[in-house]
Write a structure and sequence with these properties.
By secondary structure, this protein is an alpha+beta fold. The protein is built from 5 helices and 5 strands, in the order βααβββαβαα. It is 31% helix and 22% strand.
């Protein structure tokens, strides 16, 4: 061997214990931190206009739009899953649409993403929902491999469409192009 034996590898603690709970209004700063971390990871920080006030209104106001499961390593936020109830006409049952799942970099590769998805799957089963679904960016090959390892199947025959901003206002006003 050139240069002699390799130095011993430092021990890595791969047995982090995670705790999970539904978010409350007091968790809004943590939720926003997760959202901003996700926006940075997805290379979309310029699209992130979420604020604490907007999150308080939309998640904990009179008509909550979504639910959030937070993950903690001790007292440190480790990640989150934000989801809302969807509906399948073919199944005639609700489902869970996972809008966002994010794990802070220091907690990746420790099984936390799998645990968060397991929590959502348990919620779906407990509530009698028919499915759990989500979208993934085409370039995110690590996430795609991870989701496939869980048995998730890409819906390649479906293309997501979105109407936002000016196009949304135009459509609402009945002024969309007639084709």
């Amino acid at each position: 061997m050139l240069g002699g034996p390799s130095p011993p590898m430092p021990e890595v603690n791969l047995t982090v214990e995670f705790a999970f709970r539904l978010a409350t209004v007091e968790d809004v700063p943590v939720i926003l931190r997760c959202i901003r971390g996700l926006a940075d990871y997805e290379r979309l920080p310029h699209d992130c206009v979420a604020t604490e006030d907007l999150l308080r209104q939309s998640l904990f106001g009179a008509d909550p739009a979504a639910e959030v499961v937070l993950a903690f390593a001790g007292d440190q936020p480790a990640g989150f899953a934000l989801w809302f109830r969807s509906y399948s006409t073919f199944l005639a049952r609700p489902g869970i649409y996972l809008e966002d799942l994010f794990v802070f970099p220091e907690y990746r590769s420790l099984g936390l993403g799998r645990s968060l998805l397991r929590r959502l799957a348990q919620t779906a089963v407990e509530r009698g929902y028919g499915r759990l679904e989500w979208a993934v960016l085409d370039w995110n090959e690590d996430a795609i491999r991870f989701y496939q390892s869980l048995g998730a199947v890409a819906m390649i025959d479906w293309t997501t469409y979105r109407v936002t901003d000016g196009a949304l206002a135009t459509l609402a006003a009945g002024e969309a192009n007639n084709q």
